[in-house]
Amino acid sequence: MTVSKTKKTVRCTVRYVVLIVCSLILILPFLSLFTTSFKTFEDAVGNANSLIPKPFTLDNYVRSVTEQGYLRGLWNSVHISVLTTIGTVFSSSLVAYAFARFEVREKEYIFSFLLMSVMIPGQVLQISMYALYTRLGWIDTFFPFWIPPFLGGGIMNVFLIRQFFRGIPKTLFEAAEIDGAGEWRNYWTLAMRMSVPILITVGIFTFTGSWNDFMGPLLYLSGAPEKRPLALVMYQMYDTVKIGDTKQWNIISAANVLTMLPLIIMYFCCQKYFIEGISVSGIKQ
Amino acid sequence: MEKTKKRTGSFHLGRAGRQRLHFYLFLLPAVIGFSILTAYPFFSSLIASFTDRLLYYPGDAQFIGLKNYRYLLEFYPKFWPAFKNSLIYAVFNVILTNVIALIAANALTKQFRGTKVFRTLFYIPSILPAVATVIMFAFVFDPSSGLVNSVLLKFGIAREDLPMWLSNSRTALMTLIIISLWGFGGKMVIYIAGLNEIPVSYYEAAELDGASRTVCFFKITMPLVTPSILYNLITAIIAGVQVFTEAYVGANGVSFYVACIYDLAYTGTYQMGVASAMAWLLFVFVAVLVFGNMILSRFYVHYEY
């Protein structure tokens, strides 16, 4: 009895030690970034192993916000991501409703067909889309980011929402129909209202995906400095902010903290949906 | 019952017809989106891959058969190195992150004090923008002013022996793989979900029979999370060979597959034809992987639900 008890405490302690060491290794890069963002240039480049800024300065944040176009980039990221999210949630839920609600013989074939398109690497499609956007005059405009999300919203999202719609009892729809509701009202006031959790999950993943997208802005917005979203502004800074050949890591780090911050804040606001969403999307396979 | 309903509704737009009409109305965004955003570029790039098309001169394109493919496979100097690098990156990334994620998930499935804190800590890195992460690590691994080297220096490694990490083409690939491990948390959460599905009674039964923890892990846990493993493997391999941001921002002198496509298509002479061919070769490779995995999975995946 006592042997197993000591064994248990030992095991528990070992587990904590391992977990804490792992966490430290994970956090260390971020800690280095965070502290560097408060350092002066000389301190940042010269004393990387010291995690205490000496002297402490907020100048880097002031400079990356005022001089480096952070606010502009933030605004661009926000409206691109918000519109992408709205479009994706709206159109993928419409499509999901079609698959969940109607009995049509060819339904499953169409669904599998659409599902197969997930396998196509983005590059196969991107080159021709770029050519198309060029012809439409959409390069260096926001249209390549604003319009496509409204067209179907991605089959994986459709998949997730469809699963949820299917769980809604049929009797509810029938009752609504007796009360005179058409399909649109069924979709909008019944199915959508009852599926808020999955819609938030899909929304969050769409939002982070769009926020973190780098290749899209690099292709479509490189030529328009005032339209660059945060990811591209960040890269531009990394590329150009230097004294001589040495990058000004202090300013770059401050901007980097500011780039990561919105997502970290969002994570803590929507923690539940992040984890639940992954569980749902992971298991379903 | 169903049949009679259908029959009475077969004239006019009966129940079945209305269902179909509504189905296609709701499907409309996907139909339009699939045609414009998938089907059109899919075939357009396939056609382009058989021509010498330059991006800005679509009218001058000539059909040249398989020449682009031959050029890539036999003459283009960057093709095979890029393919090799992307593949190495993908394979190591897949194996290492999955092993770490599985171990971490196994440690964090049981509820104890602090589970949530650790889960959060491990998970957050995986949602951060790749650009930001790579730039952060570019600083951490900076040869002269980065954290890693300054610590190594403290431990008595001579300045000239310090690794150059991302700044040297020989170590850059390895460094990128190390960096990619930081984002194992996304996979960990999927594994936690998978592990939580396993009934506790299995473990209790095994414990009664005197099975050790290691035996439990390999005999119960592993077989039962294979669906999650399969999903993780497929997505990770496909994502891994397509790595772009990390390669574009961080890699110094190391060519990666998608970065090569980018160079061909969007810089220099904008060789859309060759770039399309290269993208299509990637598609073929991914398709082989996916179908291979699907066939293999019949043998090693244990489906219970």
Structure description:
The complex is a heterodimer of chains A (285) and B (305). Chain A is mostly helical and 285 residues long. Chain A is built from 15 helices and 2 strands. Chain A has a two-stranded antiparallel ribbon. The longest helix of chain A has 35 residues. Helix content of chain B is 71%, strand content 0%. Chain B is built from 14 helices and no strands. The radius of gyration of chain B is 26 Å and the shape is flat. Chains A and B meet through helix 1, helix 2, helix 4, helix 5 and helix 6 of A and helix 2, helix 4, helix 5, helix 6 and helix 7 of B.
Query: How many distinct beta strands of chain A?
Result: 2
Q: Provide the CATH topology of the largest domain in chain A.
A: MetI-like fold
CATH fold call of the largest domain in chain B: MetI-like fold
Number of domains of chain B: 2
CATH architecture of the largest domain in chain A: Orthogonal Bundle
Low-pLDDT runs of chain A: none
Give the CATH level 1 class of the largest domain in chain B.
Mainly Alpha
Shape, per Cα inertia axes of chain A? globular
| Pair of chains with the largest interface and how many residues each contributes | A-B, 91 and 97 residues
Please bin the fraction of helical residues of chain A.
Answer: over 70%
